[in-house]
Design a protein that fits this description.
The chain is an alpha+beta fold and about 450 residues long. It folds into 2 domains: about 210 residues, Periplasmic binding protein-like II (D-Maltodextrin-Binding Protein, domain 2, 3-Layer(aba) Sandwich), CATH 3.40.190; about 190 residues, 3-Layer(aba) Sandwich (D-Maltodextrin-Binding Protein, domain 2), CATH 3.40.190.10. Helices cover about 45% and strands about 10% of the residues. The protein is built from 19 helices and 9 strands. The strands form 2 sheets. Strands 2-1-3-8-4-9 form a 6-stranded mixed sheet. It has a 3-stranded antiparallel sheet with strand order 6-5-7. Strand 1, helix 3 and strand 2 form a beta-alpha-beta unit. The longest helix has 18 residues. The two termini are about 40 Å apart. The N terminus is likely disordered. Belongs to the bacterial solute-binding protein 1 family. It is found in: Periplasm. This is Extracellular solute-binding protein.
């Protein structure tokens, strides 16, 4: 993750420059009541994913300090890369020791729900006070439809990130809204020597995001609503035939790209179109390099094109907050998460993180971060419109395991590169998924 930190670093000064005071633009529900208090002498350890914009960790830690000052609860925060958080969370679940709270990704909580503290009371309080949770939040963290096993933090929204001048030079006045136009744009960019580039390695964020979007855009899915594995389907084959035609338009090396690589390639001028969070834009905008500042003015964002499925099929990197049952201070842990999700802390944190994390509660859609710059707006509804990774089935051990094993990403990479035919890639994905979704 060091590379990504280097290229996506955003200074605290920039965060302050873009932040706008966030007034309460909604009326909190009178029924939202919370009376939780930390245990006497409580101490907490939090493990979370590493920063990708500097303002995120700066404001997060400022909020941690504020919490300690108000409650007397000492909080230790450890930062790890996305790929490192998951195994450490699994160890904590299996050994019954380690961090009290872990901020992890996607449906990791569904790997060990019995090891997590029931936070239904906290979820109900926050939902009532802040306009309700978006549907995907319940799909991820309320798998039985009753009890919450974690509290949503939001999601790293992903959009098409592109160079406006290169798009126009390729003959397009606006970014295509459908997959047919998107393919034509990528071919035209390649012909102009300004290619696209999308991660096809085991990239937790970027690889999963765009590969799931593409599968769903053509009507394919890993499983059906009854959790029957159906990825070897005519719809999936069409998606794989599409990516086989799309892949030759990419810059070299994308089969090995992890999350930092497309950022680096974009900022180096090697590609002019990718799928990413808002962090690429701010890395350019806040750079001291005049060339990158000039590039920032040329960068724009668009929501993912619509495919034959005829509706948005976006997938974003979902963030959860889990409290483990081995904690000695469950009340303090709940109080910490409540404090961090309240408008007084969450609003400034969202602004300091420049919209890198899109909100899970509807009230926060009114935060000025989404309108202070028009280039932010496409990221605003990332959680509102996204699907969960195991869509349309029920999330649980199988969906979490299949996601962690990069089945969809690997299938796309195999078909794109010609390592396997679309039919062979779909058949292999079917067999791999069936090992998780056992009948």
């Amino acid at each position: 993750m060091t590379q990504r930190r280097d290229f996506l670093k955003t200074t605290a000064g920039v965060a302050a420059g873009t932040a706008v005071a966030a007034p309460a633009l909604w009326i909190p529900s009178a029924h939202a009541q919370w009376a939780g208090k930390p245990e006497p002498g409580a101490k907490l350890r939090v493990l979370r994913w590493s920063r990708f914009v500097q303002g995120d960790i700066d404001q997060y830690m400022a909020n941690v300090k504020k919490f300690t000052e108000q409650t007397g609860v000492e909080v230790r925060v450890d930062n790890e890369g996305w790929e490192d958080v998951r195994p450490k969370a699994a160890v904590a679940a299996n050994t019954g020791a380690g961090p009290d709270i872990i901020l992890s990704t996607n449906d990791d909580a569904n790997l060990y729900p019995e090891k997590l503290v029931d936070v239904t009371d906290l979820a109900d309080y926050l939902g009532k006070k802040y306009g309700g949770w978006y549907p995907v939040c319940e799909q991820y963290l309320r798998p039985d439809g009753r009890n919450w096993i974690g509290i949503p933090l939001g999601a790293a929204g992903n959009c098409m990130v592109y160079r406006t001048s290169h798009m126009k030079a390729a003959g397009f006045d606006s970014f295509p809204k459908d997959t047919d136009g998107f393919l034509k744009l990528c071919k035209a960019l390649k012909d102009k020597g300004t290619p696209a580039g999308f991660a096809l390695g085991n990239a937790t964020g970027d690889g999963n995001t765009w590969c799931h979007w593409l599968l769903w855009a053509f009507g394919g899915s890993l499983v059906d609503k009854d959790n029957k594995v159906v990825i070897n389907s005519p719809e999936t084959i069409k998606a794989l035939e599409y990516i086989r035609e799309l892949y030759p338009t990419f810059a070299p090396g994308t089969l090995a790209w992890l999350d930092p690589n497309n950022n680096k390639a974009f900022l180096d001028g090697q590609i002019s179109l990718t799928c990413n969070g808002i962090s690429v834009y701010y890395a350019a905008k806040t750079s001291n390099d005049p060339k990158l500042k000039e590039m920032a003015a040329d960068i724009n964002h668009a929501n993912m094109p619509i495919g034959p499925a005829g509706q948005p099929t976006e997938f974003n990197l979902f963030f959860n907050q889990m409290i483990f049952k081995h904690t000695k201070f469950p009340n303090a842990a709940k109080e910490f998460i409540r404090f961090m999700m309240e408008e007084e802390q969450y609003g400034p944190w969202m602004q300091a993180a420049i919209g890198y994390v899109s909100h899970p509660l509807d009230a926060y859609s009114k935060n000025p971060i989404w309108t202070v710059d028009a280039k932010h707006t496409p990221y605003r509804d990332a959680v509102k419109i996204m699907r969960p990774g195991g869509w349309p089935g029920k999330l649980g051990y199988a969906s979490a395991g299949a996601m962690a094993d990069f089945i969809v990403v690997n299938m796309m990479a195999e078909a794109a590169s010609g390592q396997r035919s679309p039919k062979e890639a779909a058949e292999r994905a079917q067999k791999r998924a069936e090992r998780y979704y056992k009948v």
